[in-house]
Amino acid sequence: MTPEYAADIRAAVDVLHRGGVILYPTDTVWGLGCDATSPDAVRRIFDIKRRADAKALITLVGSFSQLERTVDGIPEVAYQLIEYSERPVTIVFDRPLPSARIAPELLAPDGTIGVRVTSEEFSRGLCDTFRKPLVSTSANVSGEPAPAVYTDISPEIIGAVDYVCLSRRDEAAVPGSKPSSVIRLSEDGLFKILRP
User: Fold this and answer.
1) Are the CB atoms for 168 and 121 separated by under 8 Å?
2) pTM
3) CA dihedral 7, 12, 16, 17 (to 10 degrees)
4) Contact 185, 117 (CB under 8 A)
5) Which of 182, 159, 3 is nearest to 90 (CA)?
6) How many angstroms separate the CA atoms of 107 and 81, rounded?
7) What are 36-87's pLDDT values in tens digits?
8) Quick one: CA dihedral 119, 125, 128, 131, positive or negative?
9) Which of 9, 8, 20 is nearest to 125 (CA)?
């Protein structure tokens, strides 16, 4: 990790610890993020996106061990889906671990939780340094296109957050940059593709 990445991550984590909302690059598109255990911060993201509370948000973790500290009853096939998927994949699991203290606002009405394990250097470093799951949702007003690059983000979104990460701002669009695929995976290993 470069010194610039490390300094940017430290600044972002400081804001996260204070309950703030950040704008950061992920393994898919630019995202809005906050502490996934803070109901107040999560509600702020819903307000920024002007999104209905009934629509659950994705939780981002940086490793399998962090996933295991977040989700209860992970079927073995989940590890294979994450490791061998050609693009980032979010898995909707049956429930979080109570000890993870995930904000209820992140869960779907049926109690399920959508989690993605990021392998991208910056967002993984952010998760590892923060040591808690992050919210990851595209940095756009609900219904508008997800921003593949920093220059796609609207001034309204930029002005609404507490910290805008400096890293990866100058990148051009990567062909095919888009939100992750989403798979519903129950504890017994049955799965259904929710977003290809």
Assistant:
1) no
2) 0.91
3) 20
4) no
5) 182
6) 21
7) 999 999 999 999 998 776 577 899 999 999 999 999 999 999 999 999 888 8
8) negative
9) 9
